[in-house]
Amino acid sequence: MRRFYFDHNATTPVAPEVREMLGSALSEVYGNASSIHHAGQVAKQKLEQARRQTASFLHCGPKEIVFTSGGTESDNLAIFGVIRRSTAPSRHLITSAIEHPAVLASCAQLEREGVEVTYLPVSPAGVVDPDDVRRALRRDTVLISIMHANNETGVVQPIGQIARIAREAGVLFHSDGVQAAGRVRVNVRTLGPDLYSISGHKFYAPKGTGALYVRPGVKIMPLLHGGRHEQDRRAGTENVPGSMALAAAAGWMEAHLDAEGERLSELRDHLEASVLNRVPDVAVNGGAAPRLPNTTSLCFEGVEGEAMVIALDLRGFAVSSGSACSSGAVEPSHVLIAMGLSRERAKASLRISLGRGNNREQVDALADAISQSVAHLRKLSPTYTAHA
Ligand SMILES: *Cc1c(COP(=O)(O)O)cnc(C)c1O
Fold this sequence. Notes:
The structure is a single chain. By secondary structure, this protein is α/β, with parallel strands linked by helices. The protein has two domains: 4-12 and 257-380, Alpha-Beta Complex (Aspartate Aminotransferase, domain 1), CATH 3.90.1150.10; 16-252, Type I PLP-dependent aspartate aminotransferase-like (Major domain) (Aspartate Aminotransferase, domain 2, 3-Layer(aba) Sandwich), CATH 3.40.640. The protein has helices spanning 16-28, 38-58, 71-85, 101-112, 130-136, 159-169, 188-191, 240-278, 305-314, 334-338, 343-347, 360-380, and strands at 4-5, 65-68, 92-96, 116-120, 141-145, 172-176, 195-199, 210-214, 282-284, 295-300, 317-318, 349-353. Helix 3 (71-85) runs parallel beside helix 4. The longest helix is centred in the C-terminal third of the chain and has 39 residues, at 240-278. The mean pLDDT is 96. Pyridoxal-5'-phosphate (PLP) binds next to helix 3. Residues 70-72, 75, 100, 102, 147, 151, 176, 178-179, 199, 201-202, 210 line the site of pyridoxal-5'-phosphate.
């Protein structure tokens, strides 16, 4: 059976040019970047080159990049790093109800440690209101953490406005940019967050690679203690080939971002139009908001999202219900619930996320498979009756 991958927000395959580069890096760049001999100096030089490339991808300086093991670590380093650095007697953090678990679970842990956390709601379209951020500010607010783009709906948040509010209030602002980086242009200077998380495997680098942007002058407490790596912000012998791969993938994305964004948004819009044309009682979650070019979240009334994932997998299509991180769990998506969907509608939702390997023919085949699977599952559904 031919298999087509439509789950790029969960992870992406390693790009051919990254794989090739990584192969030679693994055999040739084996030194410890802290060693003073030749092998160490080669590794150090490659690491710093990767840092400059990653910095240029985000439009910042190389000293502002901390390499990490991925998005989860970058989010944890930003949040725990800022909060633990503060010695104030009472500390308050503002985040949103639609964050990735890497942020939400970090906040939950900080709550157990005595930090107060405000979870902002979102509009029915899935957007955080910057005025809500302003209203939630307190004298003891230390950090605001709001994602750049949501992994389930692709909805893009107004982080430029939130950054301005944070700066005026003298509060640090972290943004989880794991879905945005590599999908839309990111310039941390003009957007203005103090900390910004990215993850390599969401844009065609291997799993286990990531980075955190830290604005000059922002002090964070490390999560990992040991050697003096990454300017004392992340101890541990550097993953030089991984950082080189992250930088190479970022370089490819940077060069192809506009063309690829346009191509994917056309394919995504075509997919939505085909499905909406052929299948009754479908809604696009977050369709009224600005979205990433590659993502669609569709709600098929009367159908279980999990059943759709299985039905489509049997036809050769990889898609997701809710976020990958909660797949297997029966709980409906916290993101869709925050947008005001009922539990039933949230569970009836499917996420399709496109990427480099997808084309028009695959999208047409996916639309066919969706309309057939929905029709079949609705026949079996005890709750579904067509509206029209
Ligand atoms: C995937 C993802 C993460 C976690 O990144 P990992 O590299 O898998 O740890 C964090 N935030 C968002 C929005 C994501 O989509």
